[in-house]
């Protein structure tokens, strides 16, 4: 049985030594709600700090690669692919979708969730001077495949 607790009930990293190496993938999303004029500024390329989506995409990718440094007890993983897509949803939202893949002994759900979250935080950081009321919401796992626990697909929101 996999657990983060040892025989004495102390937190520790799960030993995945005996787990099979399989192809694993996870997809997560996060949404940022903002004023319509903030979204217009991002889409028009008129933001004084540059391309908000490009910076958020890179931040998400970097975060996925460093998840083990941010989330206690996560394994350091050799990700083979990280994709972060950002889509404007007028009048007032950005949807961030992060997809992480690897061939390994443990899943990549936390990496996908971290990528989506950090991309959302980056949008907030870049736009807070013009819209402090932005809201980061609906961060969730959309799907995962591979591994002993099998596949998962979230119900439509």
Automatic annotation (TrEMBL):
Its EC number is 4.6.1.17. It is an enzyme of class 4 (lyase). Belongs to the MoaC family. Keywords: Lyase, Molybdenum cofactor biosynthesis. Pathway: Cofactor biosynthesis; molybdopterin biosynthesis. Homohexamer; trimer of dimers. It catalyses: (8S)-3',8-cyclo-7,8-dihydroguanosine 5'-triphosphate = cyclic pyranopterin phosphate + diphosphate. SUPFAM superfamilies: Molybdenum cofactor biosynthesis protein C, MoaC (SSF55040). Substrate binds at residues 73-75, 110-111. It comes from the Bacteria. Pfam families: MoaC. GO terms for molecular function: cyclic pyranopterin monophosphate synthase activity. The active site is at 125. Catalyzes the conversion of (8S)-3',8-cyclo-7,8-dihydroguanosine 5'-triphosphate to cyclic pyranopterin monophosphate (cPMP). Residues 13-147 form the Molybdopterin cofactor biosynthesis C (MoaC) domain. One of its GO terms (biological process) is Mo-molybdopterin cofactor biosynthetic process. Gene3D superfamilies: Molybdopterin cofactor biosynthesis C (MoaC) domain (3.30.70.640). This is Cyclic pyranopterin monophosphate synthase.
